[in-house]
């Protein structure tokens, strides 16, 4: 049982508060980070409650492709890939230009493979290395893992089922609105509200905040990422920064609040994410003048800003029949076809009619591409083309895309135990953070985001937070 202590709500003083129920570990947020934390806490034999504001656990993870980066996994070894956490950490540090916490990058990179293997072996989440991604976009080794359907929805379903099998209590339609702390700044409970207006108070010995980032909070975007304040937001509406603000109110430090994952591949007007392998396998991106404007094979997150800054604020993805057929393995590609977002052009004249781009400009751009592939012309943006993946069309396939903000990467500062750290360097007594609520390893901007970093940090931080909260409560 929880001991009686002076109760201070994070907003007002209330000494009369009583808890309707108490758990050793309570987790706020039922996304990948929260559910992974719950599994880890249960592995320690600890009772745990997950509070999720929506009617079912989905969150940002369900809107993603469900990719998790991990180094040194058994799946990599089966596929003959020699990788390690140290190599992964070096990739992260290089991509962020050194502007990340090196020790945490190394620690989480070294824990990433363990997390994937643990999910596979202990909780039967069928994650396997996806060789289609290869060693690209900052990864020096193939290390992106996914479930069979390659979707975030499937990953969330599998995690939810694993929690059910492990005896995790998940309460949905439970919107946490208030935290309670004692005189030592330890969180001792919280209040959640139901859709019908009723509410309950839950006590806890340890609290894990996994409420994701603040992409849906326009005021926070204006404050921390002002140049994205007018950008399209393509993330979960529940990412309102509540968990980060709770931490700040408790004295927690924050870092890299200007960091985010951008998208430059959001089809318009269907708003379906186009799989980036349509580009990595040889496709190109052109603006409304029919011109390329960057090396499309680099800086996948930074493409959000680049696309948005083009004339008229949108671009066209163009790829050939072979890429189109290959991409049908992806659910989002099939959805884009069904929605009519992907259009077929028999030739450049047809492509000109679809895109309303000057045929003269299109002919020049495609002539340049063929010369680059033939080795008679140097790509002005430095793109290196795989000779096995040259554009071969016509016919051509094209889709109109816009830039967007998907997920913020800054948040509460945590240590290697996923404990939340205060501004003075000390730690809060019993507060943990994971996923979008916690600072990621992506550095201060969008260009430091390495593919699959969101779920890599969410699951790894979640496992570590749940394990440490579980161990701490095991001996109480």
Please provide a brief summary of the model.
The protein is α+β, with helices and mostly antiparallel strands and 476 residues long.
Give a topology summary:
Layout: E1 8-9, E2 21-28, H1 32-43, E3 48-51, E4 68-69, H2 74-78, H3 85-95, H4 102-121, E5 128-129, E6 144-146, H5 152-166, E7 169-171, E8 175-181, E9 187-193, E10 199-209, H6 218-224, E11 232-233, H7 242-249, E12 254-255, E13 260-267, H8 277-280, E14 284-287, H9 303-308, E15 315-320, H10 321-327, H11 331-339, E16 343-345, H12 348-355, H13 359-374, E17 396-408, E18 411-412, E19 419-421, E20 427-433, H14 453-474
Parallel strand pairs: 2-3, 2-10, 3-7, 10-20, 11-17
Antiparallel strand pairs: 1-8, 4-6, 5-6, 8-9, 9-10, 12-18, 13-17, 14-15, 15-17, 16-17, 19-20
């Amino acid at each position: 049982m929880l001991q009686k202590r002076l109760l201070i709500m994070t907003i007002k003083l209330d000494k009369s508060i009583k808890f309707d129920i108490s758990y050793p570990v309570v987790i706020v947020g039922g996304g990948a980070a929260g559910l992974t934390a719950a599994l880890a806490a249960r592995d320690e034999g600890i009772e745990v409650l997950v509070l999720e504001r929506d009617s079912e656990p989905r969150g940002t993870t369900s809107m993603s492709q469900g990719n998790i980066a991990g180094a040194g996994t058994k799946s990599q070894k089966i596929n003959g890939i020699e990788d390690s956490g140290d190599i992964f950490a070096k990739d992260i540090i290089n991509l962020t230009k050194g502007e990340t916490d090196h020790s945490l990058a190394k620690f989480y990179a070294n824990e990433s493979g363990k997390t994937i293997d643990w999910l596979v072996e202990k909780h039967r989440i069928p994650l396997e290395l996806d060789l289609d991604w290869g060693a690209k976009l900052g990864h020096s080794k193939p290390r992106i893992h996914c479930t069979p359907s390659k979707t975030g929805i499937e990953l969330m379903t599998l995690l939810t089922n694993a929690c059910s099998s492990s005896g995790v209590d998940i309460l949905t339609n439970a919107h946490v609105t208030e935290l309670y702390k004692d005189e030592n700044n330890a969180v001792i409970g919280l209040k959640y509200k139901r859709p019908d207006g009723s509410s309950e108070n839950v006590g806890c010995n340890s609290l894990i905040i996994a409420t994701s980032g603040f992409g849906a909070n326009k005021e926070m975007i204006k404050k921390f990422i002002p140049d994205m304040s007018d950008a399209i937001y393509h993330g979960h509406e529940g990412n309102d920064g509540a968990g980060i603000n709770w931490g700040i109110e408790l004295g927690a430090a924050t870092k890299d609040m200007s960091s985010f994952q951008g998208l430059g591949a959001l089809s318009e007007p269907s708003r379906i994410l186009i799989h980036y392998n349509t580009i990595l396998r040889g496709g190109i991106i052109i603006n409304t003048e029919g011109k390329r404007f960057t090396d499309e094979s680099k800086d996948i997150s930074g493409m959000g800003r680049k696309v948005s800054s083009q004339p008229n604020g949108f671009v066209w993805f163009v790829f050939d029949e072979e890429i189109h057929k290959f991409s049908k393995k992806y659910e989002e590609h099939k959805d884009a076809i069904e929605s009519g977002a992907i259009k077929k052009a028999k030739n450049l004249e047809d492509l000109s009619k679809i895109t309303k781009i000057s045929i003269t400009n299109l002919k020049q751009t495609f002539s340049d591409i063929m010369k680059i592939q033939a080795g008679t012309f140097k790509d002005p943006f430095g793109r290196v083309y795989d000779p096995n993946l040259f554009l071969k069309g016509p016919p051509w396939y094209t889709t109109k895309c816009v830039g967007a903000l998907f997920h913020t990467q800054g948040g509460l500062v945590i240590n290697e135990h996923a404990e939340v750290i205060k501004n003075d360097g000390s730690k809060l007594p019993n507060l943990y953070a994971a996923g979008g609520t916690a600072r990621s390893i992506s550095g201060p901007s969008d260009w430091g985001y390495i593919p699959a970093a969101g779920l890599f940090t969410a699951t790894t931080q979640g496992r570590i937070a749940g394990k440490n909260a579980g161990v701490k409560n095991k001996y109480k």
